[in-house]
Fold:
Amino acid sequence: MREVLDYLIVSLSEYYKLIEEKLQHFCNIFPGRVNQLTLENAKKICEIVPSISSPELLYSELQLLKNDIDSYTEMTELINKIKIIRHGYPNATRIYQFLLALPITVATNERCFSKLKLIKNKLRSTLMPDKMEWLIISSAERDLLENADLSSFAEE
Structure:
């Protein structure tokens, strides 16, 4: 069981590192940081977001919106503004829609549980049939095991 938990912890840590690497370029499109946006950030964002083909156009849209973006302190206010002006700045709108639609936690949990299921199946398939039978009996007769003296079993 410890191996399974270690595996899950390592997998989750690797996943968070991957997410951090991929999404670090998005931090410069938030209020208060938009002045730090570079063309290189826009290129990296375009590599991640599938519907945007021109990093230069995205960069210029965000530069035109820079003062508007900086005037907001909350992301919800900014999103409401983007909804209003979405036709004039289609690439900027797509970026913020992409950020709002990221399914980070649900997909991660589903993957972790899927891996856990695979590991459990592997462990079950490698057990000897008699050992599996004893484990099933132990699970069914749990109340007898709670009252049993386990040290006497270990000696035998």
